[in-house]
Amino acid sequence: MGMIMENKKPFSDKEEFRYKLHLLKENIDVDVLLRTLGFNISKSNSKEVRAPCKIHGGDNKTSFRMDKQTKNWICFSHNCHEEIGYDVISLVMHMLNLDFSEAVRYLESVTGINIYDELSYLEFKRAKDRQEVVQHASKYELPPKQVNEEYLRNFKKFRSNYFEKEKNGKFTKEVLDEFEIGGGYVDRYGFQRDVIPIRDKGSKLVAYSCRDITGKADEDYKYLLTEGFEKDVVLYNLHKAENYIGKSKTIIVVEGFKSVWKLYMAGYKNVVACMGSNITHGQQHLLYSTVFTVMTLFDGDTAGIKGTLNTVKNMSDKINLIPLFLPYDGKDPADCSVDELKDIIGVIK
Ligand SMILES: [Zn+2]
After folding, report:
1. Strand 48-51 to 43-44 pairing
2. Is-contact 4 19, C-beta < 8 A?
3. Which residue among 6, 10, 154, 231 sits deepest, i.e. has the most Cβ atoms within 10 Å of its Cβ?
4. How far, in Å, CA of 256 to CA of 235, rounded?
């Protein structure tokens, strides 16, 4: 690039355009862009981003790969790039149904780099609107720098009574202490959040999930996760649950944090959360190496039922699997009373 800059000869229009496109691509923040386009990023490091391919809609978490340097992408499951074109502009064109110059302008709005000299007012406005969407998206992750024991000790002093007051929760101080729930986290919007620490199997603190306690955050952002946290290879509460798997080596898998706490209140300490409605490949392997029997008790909604059926398909030939279903439509285990949970789960030896 330095050489091009020093070149005194004026560019031909084509060269100049190509150079500007190069500059534009160079300034794209791949994580932000893909999130904005609706990709659910499963892995991101300095070289690449992986996600389920949003184009064909598969659920393989690594089938879509974008190279962080070239911004080119590939779909390993369905070769979607062959149909659409493997560069980032083609991707934007496809995902947002734009033509080439509209896609370029969209990327300009994302990067703040203008490669066209003139923008009509409408185009400018549209670009601006989209920029707000992008900024909105990038707000919703927590910086990882506070994920350490010292910060956690401080957060613990500032827990609110949010979870104690929750309508169906009735979580006790004792159970919230047991799960080290803290508070006092203020996100970039200025919304206060309670802090749920997440530890890996070896008890290492690896992330937080932070719950909005003001009621002002958007529905999708009630919980914020630490940026870069690879939840695929962590089961919430496994570091404690594995001490209670008993002679039958049985563990119960639920979807969410609060379901873990509620089962704990009902006397089930051998419980972990997969933090979604699917047990990922990495989480399955954690289970295979820890227990003989897996009971699932997912949420009583469509996603929960789908997740249960997927789990049966993926795991029943590898481990003793007992899928349980909530008889209460739309409820999740955290909404149930202790007695209801005892009825559903029964006695585990
Ligand atoms: Zn694909």
Report:
1. antiparallel
2. yes
3. 231
4. 10
Its pTM stands at 0.61
CA–centroid distance, 77 to ligand 1, in Å, is 6
Task: Give the pairing type, strands 250-254 and 223-225.
Answer: unpaired
φ/ψ (deg, to 5) at 183 = -165, -170
The structure tokens listed for 6 are 């020093």
What is the pLDDT of the chain when averaged over all its residues?
A: 86
pLDDT higher than 80, residue 175: yes
CA distances from 305 to 178, 218, 315 (A): 29, 25, 15
- In this structure, of 13-27, 32-46, 220-234, the range with the lowest mean pLDDT score is 13-27
Q: How many angstroms separate the alpha carbon of residue 59 from the centre of ligand 1? A: 10
Q: Determine the pLDDT at residue 200.
A: 96
Ligand 1 midpoint to CA 87 (Å): 14
Alpha-carbon distance 243 to 238, whole Å? 9
Percent of the chain with pLDDT over 90: 55
Query: At residue 121, does pLDDT exceed 70?
Result: no
| 40 contact partners, CB below 8 Å, separation of at least 6 | 51, 52, 54
Span from the CA of 29 to the centroid of ligand 1 (angstroms): 21
Q: Comparing C-alpha atoms, which of 50, 33, 66 is closest to residue 138?
A: 33
Taking the C-alpha atoms of residue 204 and residue 149, their distance in angstroms, rounded to an integer, is 9
| Exposure class string for 54-77: b at 16+ Cβ within 10 A, else e | bbeebebbbbbbbeeeebbbbbee
- Strands 293-297 and 43-44, by their bridges, are unpaired
Question: What angle, rounded to 10 degrees, do the helices at 281-288 and 302-315 form?
Answer: 60
Q: What's the 38 CA to ligand 1 centre distance in angstroms? A: 14
Q: Give how far Cα 17 sits from Cα of 13, 14, 22, Å.
A: 6, 5, 9
User: Ligand 1 mean position to 139 CA, how many Å?
Assistant: 27
The more confidently predicted of residues 347 and 128 is 347
Residue 64 CA to ligand 1 center (angstroms) comes to 7
Give the model confidence (pLDDT) of 313-322 as tens digits.
999 999 999 9
